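To: structure desk
From: M.T.
Subject: fold request, one chain
Message: Could you run this one when you get a chance? Sequence is below, nothing fancy, just the single chain.
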Amino acid sequence: MSARRNLFVVLSLLVLLHVYIGIRLMPALGLGWTGMLGGTVFLILSTVLVPVGLLSSSLRRRRWSEQLAWIGLLAMGLFSSLLVSTFVRELVLLVAAVAGAGGPALDYYSALAVPLVALGVTFVGFVNARRVARVKRVDVPIEGLPEALHGYSIAQISDIHVGPTIKRPYLNAIVNRVNALEADAIAVTGDLVDGSVQRLALHTQPLARLSAPDGAFFVTGNHEYYSGAEEWIAELRRLGLTVLLNQHVVRRRGEAALMIAGVADYTAHHFNPAHRSDPQLAAAGAPDDLAVKILLAHQPRSAPAAAEAGFDLQLSGHTHGGQFFPWNLFVPLQQPFVAGLHRVRRLWVYTSRGTGYWGPPKRFGAPSEITLVRLVPA
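Reply: Done. Structure tokens follow.
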């Protein structure tokens, strides 16, 4: 009953927002009868298609389900920019009215600018989202780093979201670029998929080609738990990745030892109590001669517990860097960091902007990345 009520609230809000956009823009544009009809049809279609985009990962496989998912997700991205642009126009008109500079011309041209800006942002965002993520190189200074570990590198990919619009060719290109970096280790820091193993196993197959001397590691993100985490853990192990569920491995370079640990997603216990995220448990039983302790944790908010457990570096994702404006402004309400390298006491935390995208194929102001993290002496 609660889910049905929530759905009703979301759909009602969606209808009201589309009506608001229509009322605020169409009269100002002086469209005439045919223009008003066309605008109304467009807004009705958008109202119908946005929920299709929201539910795209659970659409049943039918003849046109993939194309419908694409259309719904593109409509979702366009609606977001249309709504934000309409709000920005309201602010412009308010400031102009206060300054005594308003008038019919501003009303018309500002209304015309809204759909043009929304279309432009959606197009640029689509191009940014669909290109193969660029490599971002990050040096992390570690105090007392043994010479044998100078330049030790980890290639990090995160938040790919294989699902409705991200398929095998997209992931294949990412794997090619990661392998070309010839990193010492590879870290996949969660939110790999949006859908079941049955639906997506063919599309995640390229992960079997990930290759690094010290191995390829995976930790769960929240979306794995929406998609059947136990089945995905088994599938990723079958593909040759080492899944770290509050566990660690030790790798050596000569006399120097380095630990790579991983925790389940910060919210995993809500889905499986046995997967409760625990950096202390992940480090338990480690040898005393470790020079560097690295933690893979999907969400940046694992950092205080990681610092408490004595880790030197945490690699995270989850935020997508906000993916596109203005949603980057809301990330700090839930996470301590949006993107980049930060410090929590003596712990370094690197938050990736993500290698794919979630929902609309759209990135604006938050480029995707494959991160090459190198350890360097402080």
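Reply (cont.): The two ends are 57 Å apart (CA to CA). Let me know if you need anything else for the meeting.
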